[in-house]
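User: I've been going back and forth on whether these two constructs are worth ordering. Before I decide, could you fold them both?

Assistant: Sure. I'll take them in the order you sent them. The first construct and its structure tokens:
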Amino acid sequence: MKRILVAPSILAADFADMRNEVKRIDRAGADRVHIDVMDGHFVNNITFGPALISSIRSATDLPFETHLMIERPDLYIKQFSDAGSDILIVHVEADHTMARTLRMIKACRKRAGIALNPNTPVSAARKYMKDIDMLLMMSVYPGFGGQKFIGSVLKKIKEVRRIDGSRLTIGVDGGVNVQTAEQAIRAGANEMIAGTTVFKARSYGRAISELRCPHLLSKL
């Protein structure tokens, strides 16, 4: 039975109580903390910076997975690394040289990931797959939480699994709930990024457990 990782996105957490929210998802069994960084340029929304990451870093030992939805991620790799990020995810659609940015991440001794928007083909990331640890499939258009899952991403997940086998972590981000998580796991994904599904649930622990779809894994 393969393990499904769950990374709650703190974009849906209570901003006024962020340290305690991080502690709660840790106790509830989360595998990673997903941090959506938006700059108001690559996407319209503005969210967190390195200072927020620094302020919550001591609240948990869970890996911080920092998703840089910013126009020039290469200019900020060291800042986010120094703030406490463990995994740095950058978009192929952003304005940077991907190979150089990945080298910068590795030079900081961090794990590297690439994110693909729903309309970006897998081919845009294929030549970098040997250099990354994670491929993040956006199942909504980035910028805001609470959007509906775009089903066409499932075909892309299957394509990546055919190319890569089982090495890469394939994350799914956007509109993830129990039903869409099951579809993504069947396609080959092994990490669920979920915001409202976790943070709006009565029980964080139950929500995280259900996103792993244990009823499905026993059959795969």
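The second construct, handled the same way:
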Amino acid sequence: MGHQDHEQRAQQETPVTRCGVLTISDTRTPETDTSGALIRTLLTQAGHDVVRYAVVRDEPDEIEAQILACTAEGCKLVITNGGTGIARRDSTFEVIDGLLEKRLPGFGELFRMLSYEAIGPAAMLSRATAGVYGDALIFCLPGSTNAVRLAMERLIVPQLPHLVWETVR
């Protein structure tokens, strides 16, 4: 079966996906979190259920606890935004990387390639990553609303049924 056949079967067989959205920030609030709002909107428009949302301080223990809470609630997709840069407080990548059982290096590579087209060499500062933890997909995005839009519209939403189908079958 080729990739197009997989994608077609995935579109037909994958149920609505339970999703968690976590914004990692020491400064944002639910009222000022435009990136988290965009993720939730795009997932909902694509027919998925966002069952958990939180703004989490950039503290490794708090980030991990929220991810584990999402997966315990049956989320098959967890998307984080924020904390993927190289600033001293940015710790999202380390937390997620420590949890992942299978990595999707192509996601980060493609994201940085597309980002480079949009913003130039500053794209190399992103440590966007993705992979599988248990039976959940985890995507780590930068906190920029433009970066979130790029990742969601060009990479995640179009492939989500196929990704979920591959992890739950």
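Notes on the second construct follow. The chain has one domain: 18-73+80-124+134-168. The first strand starts at residue 18 and ends at 24.
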